[in-house]
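Re: your question from the hallway

Yes, I did run it. Sequences:
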Amino acid sequence: MKPDTTIKEELIIEAALNRFIHFGFNKTTFSEIARDLNITQQSIYYYFPDKKSLITKVAENIMASFLEELLVKISQTKGLVEKLKGIVDVKASFFEKYFMLAIDHPKENLRDSDELHRFYLEMEDKQLAIVVSEFNEAIERGELKKTDADKTASILLKALSSMQFDYKQQHMIPDHNSLRELFDNQKELITIFISGLQNHATPCSN
Amino acid sequence: MKPDTTIKEELIIEAALNRFIHFGFNKTTFSEIARDLNITQQSIYYYFPDKKSLITKVAENIMASFLEELLVKISQTKGLVEKLKGIVDVKASFFEKYFMLAIDHPKENLRDSDELHRFYLEMEDKQLAIVVSEFNEAIERGELKKTDADKTASILLKALSSMQFDYKQQHMIPDHNSLRELFDNQKELITIFISGLQNHATPCSN
DNA sequence: ATTTTGACTTTTAAATTAAAAAAGTCAAAA
DNA sequence: TTTTGACTTTTTTAATTTAAAAGTCAAAAT
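Structure:
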């Protein structure tokens, strides 16, 4: 049975997340979170030593559920291309839900804490690791010719990331249609890219 | 024979370019350019109505020589992949020379004039057009299977652009080695991508 | 004892203002 | 026709203030 502290902590995390989703990290204050919970802002300090640690905790939660969904999706699909497209789908749904955390307030955006930045890089690493392992499995299945999975996966991810949503060019809020187009392009790229790796593997080459 | 005005105009453009290369558009003033030419800043206004028009003129010159080099390079290489890699080379050399114009001063960077922005988009269009036409010619040569050249070229360029140098992440000045790695990655992507197109386009679905 | 809070200090961000520098104008001189 | 000195206007930058949020702590409440 959960101790009281843990429950309260989770309530705070939940309330914070709700604020963060709508207003971003920097535009959310402790007193706002506290007001939502009918407590005083000082109480939060009993559970979290500072704002950074609360933000980190929230980010960790999101990332964990992201990775979880990713793995579920991959396990539910067959074939390398379909698995990779599945990754795009998961990314798409998370982006639509949490893009405000990436955008935050336009001007503020660059000053994320070192911690958060380290975190972000860690995430990229994990994604890369997942894709690499899928590549290797595809090679074992004979679905893909032998390649330097590390290098190839890294190139693919970089290529996809370049297609990422650019919050500076667009008008603040990403609209559903251009996001859809973006993710469709990513999927198309995956198809061509993997086909390129397969080379003669297709049974119907002339 | 060139009239005097044209010569002087070109001198100003040249001097401005030299300043721009080192300090960017925003950190360069008319009086600095004038000082370099031993004239007063007001004289520049005789040739250019305002700063924007001088910048535009300089940018036009660079872009023109860029496109020129691009076409030369393409005409000198054989085979779609080699031509595309040639494009990367030209882009690389121009970037190394003119990256300051893209970076400018970090904070100032976002406020380029509308004109310059339109210009930039125009350049992207032209590049796309070139790649599309190379795709079509490759198809005619039988080097490539029939595809929607427009769409495919656009996906390739987007994928490549994502791999672009990100001046916010790095530490200001792009170092030669990481640029080299970047452009090598771009070339690798091109190889895989085109290879993918060569056996992908046929409707051989299972 | 654990948790919460009021009263407080410190830090950081936002707004205001003042000063400086650059952009741009124009009539007169070269 | 081209250049310049003397000028005004606009934009940047820096300095100052103000407000708000972050963070501390001892006392009160549960």
